[in-house]
């Protein structure tokens, strides 16, 4: 890895690049897939590739490949496309070598050593969990493990190598008797500590409880959002609005809101690239900036946007360590790391006389990422009456605006879940509009 | 240990270029060269699957997929999987790229995109972004039954989005065209007019009123009705979902499930964005009538689902080196014989929903939700006030049965469809349709 990276940087400099960066990733994953109560297939995927960024006269070019013989050609194209561009006055420079934090809980040797037979037995447990509830079929699902190793090296002395593991279990179930109802559940972790039997059982219980839903009148009421529902809405509305790139381009409702109150005073939201065992934890981001902890909302007051190296240069500030790549073939852009939602926790359902509990939503990606308006279909929703989950609701549309929601949060439950990088309890929001 | 009874290999060589403009400035020029393979092996009822990238040895990849399948079959034996027999595909009528984008200098592409971008920047637009993409791909397919075939395909396209803002409110307008064609795509479409239209949509939506939710008669434009055909009906007709018990259409072949005015077709042979000459199992592409005059006629199949349920394979697709699954191609509601004025008369008071901002569907329960780009009130048979943030949701089968009129102005739109974590180029379309009753959501 190192030799290849050094060689590639040399070629780029010889071709006239002022600065250059290589990003190399090697990953391997094993997945067992469920189809209708059986484990249908086993997959082993290996991926490796290199992405090359070159800077010529303040203009950036990029090329990538997974073919070693074509690296030279890719470097040439990257330099040539940088030369096509006019110099970018906002460009400062690639990150320089810095001090990196220690992170923990991101590599589990047990995942590295896990064989296919053990993967299959953990997948089987997920089916067993679901089928331990009568009148349920698992329609689909999967269990997978991933090990990846990535290297970031640039001509400013950055040389970061990071190795991590991950595991995930997901299952989708449907009722087989009476009213048709579906549900899903999933868990993700950096170590082999997820209870796959429980994932299956939880999904099955939820599907059964959702049968024979009632219709309800359109109204404004208390809505408690499960971490799955909340993080889905948050990811499609709030997250784009804290992205410095959107802010600099005039595409965020949070422009000019630094140090203003934008949420209820008990709400704190932190982006943390160093969180112990976080799904998005590593020593640096994906352009070599050290990971850090950034307070976004502090007791209701908006404190910071998220920056990658480029947007930080443009905004005359420092990167918050949020340069993220979707793969070796894409350039870095701003993305959140572990987003931690903090609100005083209590028995949030017990304290609710009247309202609605929503487990998941569909259609959150259709939200207006700039205004924060959304209109989604709620799934596995229930009425709450006198502090208890009461009846399932058949069909429900939930509409609102994320920024109004942040001001209307009145409670949080105790069951904190990791939904990808988002770490959140269930949240109670007052005065939300629902149409049954 | 049992023997592997089938294997196949897809080798994919690709080159892609993308250019991203932001507010008229180049944000990114990116080129990718890639080569990789996806290998499947079947042992009894167990599939093994491996991918390899860069410089791989095909025989090694076949061996590891075979080992996975065999190991799987040992640990968790199950009923043997049958594959529907197939013939070597005959390739004809492939799309021809008259202008290979490779022959156009990158500077020209950048200039074209800048010109498109500037057309979106009409009065009231505060920012724009534009994307150009081209990809050329060579796909080779071989399997243990002796099939060996390959094709080359070029895809090009662009997308433009424009944002209008005023007093803290923002609205977006988007247009895009993608196709299986060369650089001539930019001559065949009036790309500047499309860009202006994106700008106009954003500006108009700023002044639009919030929609009030409720159950109403509606007219859907070809784009939104196409999304309905794809999301709500197309996905539910995918035989893998039918087999796993998550389709509302399971066990209903031959049943009247829609208004007799409705026919829905999936056709990978037409030269739209979802085109392919043979699918990811080497099966020659062919047209499938999913719903014929309101009656459920066929599911979409892979070789495995076709053998299990009866039907014709040819809709098994994969993104890159991923494992192929049952997918749509070019999916549309076929033309009827009504016109838009007749629909307005029929609806009288309701809503006209146009464009799409995507949607999702629960195929098991037959419930869907999607957001229109724009809505208009229909009052006394006339299109009146513009509305924003309008969504449509409901039960697929109820909507299909509530269709009262089908227009004769079929139009296709290109896009990418996600399933099982894989994106596939597709197109969908429809003529205008009117529906007697649908749940419309507002903010």
TrEMBL record, chain A:
Gene3D superfamilies: PmbA/TldD superfamily. One of its GO terms (molecular function) is metallopeptidase activity. Residues 20-82 form the Metalloprotease TldD/E N-terminal domain. PANTHER family: METALLOPROTEASE PMBA. Residues 219-436 form the Metalloprotease TldD/E C-terminal domain. GO terms for biological process: proteolysis. Residues 110-210 form the Metalloprotease TldD/E central domain. It comes from Methanococcoides vulcani. This is PmbA protein. InterPro entries: Metalloprtase-TldD/E_C, Metalloprtase-TldD/E_cen_dom, Metalloprtase-TldD/E_N, PmbA, TldD/PmbA_N, TldD/PmbA_sf. Pfam families: PmbA_TldD_1st, PmbA_TldD_2nd, PmbA_TldD_3rd. One of its GO terms (cellular component) is cytosol.
UniProtKB/TrEMBL annotation, chain B:
The keyword Protease applies. Keywords: Hydrolase, Metalloprotease, Protease. Residues 100-206 form the Metalloprotease TldD/E central domain. Gene3D superfamilies: PmbA/TldD superfamily. GO terms for biological process: proteolysis. Residues 214-442 form the Metalloprotease TldD/E C-terminal domain. It comes from the Archaea. InterPro entries: Metalloprtase-TldD/E_C, Metalloprtase-TldD/E_cen_dom, Metalloprtase-TldD/E_N, Peptidase_U62_metallo, TldD, TldD/PmbA_N, TldD/PmbA_sf. One of its GO terms (cellular component) is cytosol. One of its GO terms (molecular function) is metallopeptidase activity. Residues 7-69 form the Metalloprotease TldD/E N-terminal domain. Belongs to the peptidase U62 family. This is TldD protein. It comes from Methanococcoides vulcani.
